[in-house]
Amino acid sequence: MDTLVDSYRELHELLVSLELPDEETMGRLRELVEGAGRIITVGAGRSGDVAETFMRFLRNLGYERSYGPDDIPYVIKYSDLLIAFTGSGATTYTLQTVTVAREAGVKIVVFTASPQSPAARMADLVVHVPAKTKLDMAEDYYERILVREGHAPLTPLGTLFELRSLLLSLAFIGHLAENTGVRENYENLLKLIYAFTPNPMELDELYRLLPRPRRGSNPWPGKTVVIGEGFSGIVARFFVTRFRHVSHRDEIREVYYWLDRGNVAVTRGDVALIISGSGEQLPALLASRAKSKGARVASVTSFPESTLGGFSDVIVKVPGRRIQRIKGLRSSYLPRNPADSIFELRTLILLEAFVYEVAKKEGITEAEMKLLHSDFT
Questions:
Q1: pLDDT at 37 over 90
Q2: What domains can you pick out in the chain, each with its CATH number?
Q3: Mapping DSSP to helix (H, G, I), strand (E, B) and coil, where does residue 143 land?
Q4: Cα angle vertex 173, ends 131, 64, to 5°?
Q5: Mean pLDDT computed over every residue of the chain
Q6: Neighbours of 43 (CB within 10 A)
Q7: What is the mean pLDDT of residues 141-166?
Q8: SS3 category, 334
Q9: C-alpha to C-alpha distance for 237 and 228, rounded to whole angstroms
Q10: Please, what's the b/e burial string for 171-197 (b: 16 or more CB within 10 A of its CB; e: otherwise)?
Q11: What pLDDT digit, counting tens, does each position of 280-308 carry?
C-alpha cells in the first residue's frame, strides 16, 4: 500500500476538477425541491446509494415526505418530484421509473454523466456530472482486452460519476441547510477530505487480514462482512459493491453487507469489517458477537480507544467524528450539514483508494471487474 496516499490524493483531485453546474441550474433544483409534495429519489447499484444518501439528508432537513430507492410509492402523483441518479442515463430500473413518472406528469430531475441519454431527454432539469460511465467502458471493452491492460483504473465502472454526484448532492444539502453557496459547500467538503492523510501501514494490515478470493486451489478462504449504520452503512455498501468486483475471472471474492438477505452469519475464518466513527453502541456489540463466533474484526473509526477498538484485530483510524449526545439516539446520526459527516466521506474515499490498490496489487483488470458487475438493472 505504498502508493495509497497518492491514490487518495488523486481521487481528491478528480473531485476538485469537477466543473460544477451553474447557479441557475442549482437554483432551479432548489425551487423544485421546495415546491414538491413528495420527493422520490431513485438509482440502481451505487447510484442508488447516492440517491438513498440524498433522501436521508433531505428527510433530516424536514422534508419528511421523502422516499428513497427502496421505498418508492406504488403510485407516483402529479405533485411529486422525482430525482434520478444515473451515470449512463439508460439504467433499466431507473429509466423505467423515470418513464412512469413522465407519463404521470411528474417533475423530473436527472443527475447524469450523459445529458443526451434517454433519462435526460425526459427530465425537466438535467444536472450534468461529467464522468466516464459503464456504457463508455463497453465501447472499448474488447480493445482493452486485446492490449492486455495491466489492472483496473483508479475509477472503474462508473466510480467517478458516483463520487462526484454524491459530493455535489451533499453540497446542495449544505446549501439548503445553511443557505450558503453550493460551490462554497463543495469546496469546503473537499478541503476537509484533503486534510486527512491515510496511514498506509494500517491499510497493509487490513489487506493482510481480509480473506482472499475463492478459487479452485483455495475453496474456503472465508468471507468479509461489512457493518455500518446510517451514513456509515451507506459507505459500507459502497465498499461492498466495488470490492466484490476485485477478482480474476476464475475467482469470487465473498464480500457481504451485514444486512444482505436479512441475515449474514459469520464464523471462524471470516472477517467483520466495521465502520463506526464513535466505536460504540451497536457496532461494538456486533464486534463482540463476531469475536465470540471465532471471526476476526477490523474497524474503521475515529476512536481507536473505543469499545469497538478493544475488540479489533486491526484498526484504521479516520478522524472526523464528533460525539453527539442526543437523548433517544438509537444509531448513527445524519446531521443537518454534511460537513459534520466528514468521517464518512474520508472513509469512503479511503476505501475507494484501497480497492484500487488491491486491484493493482493482484493484477486485476477493469475487464475482469466488469464480468462481475451487474448488467441486469
A1: yes
A2: 1-18+130-377 (3.40.50.10490), 20-128 (3.40.50.10490)
A3: helix
A4: 120
A5: 91
A6: 28
A7: 72
A8: coil
A9: 9
A10: bbbbbbbeeebbeebbebbbebbbebe
A11: 999 999 999 999 999 999 999 999 999 99
H or E element in which residue 259 lies: none
State the Cα–Cα distance between residues 144 and 291, nearest whole angstrom.
Answer: 43
Between the alpha carbon of residue 184 and those of residues 13, 20, 127, 178, 204, the distances in Å are: 16, 11, 18, 11, 35
Question: Residue 91: what residue type?
Answer: T
- pLDDT classification of 335: cutoffs 50, 70, 90: confident
| For range 7-26, the mean pLDDT | 97
AA letter at 117: S
> Beta-carbon neighbour count of residue 98 at 10 Å?
25
Chain centroid to CA 301: how far? 17
Q: What is the mean pLDDT of the segment spanning 316-333?
A: 74
Distance (Å, rounded) from C-alpha 109 to C-alpha 130? 16
Which distant-in-sequence residues (6+ apart) come within 8 Å of 179 by Cβ?
Answer: none
C-alpha to C-alpha distance for 3 and 196, rounded to whole angstroms? 15
Q: Name the amino acid, one letter, at 252.
A: I
Residue with cell 453540497: 171
Residue that is written with C-alpha cell 472513509 in the block: 347
Q: Does residue 140 carry a pLDDT above 70?
A: no
- Phi and psi at 193, nearest 5°, equal -65, -45
Q: Spell out the SS3 assignment of 52-70.
A: HHHHHHHHHCCCCCEECCC
Task: Please report, rounded to a whole number, the percentage of residues in the chain having pLDDT higher than 90.
Answer: 80
Q: What is the pLDDT of residue 147?
A: 45
40 grid coordinates: 422520490
End-to-end, the C-alpha distance of the chain in Å comes to: 34
* Residues shown for the chain: 377
Helical H segments across 250-295, by residue range: 282-292
339 in Cβ contact with 189 (< 8 Å): yes
Q: What is the pLDDT of residue 145?
A: 43
Greatest distance between any 2 Cα atoms in the chain? 60
Question: What's the rounded Cα separation, in Å, for the pair 69 and 327?
Answer: 29
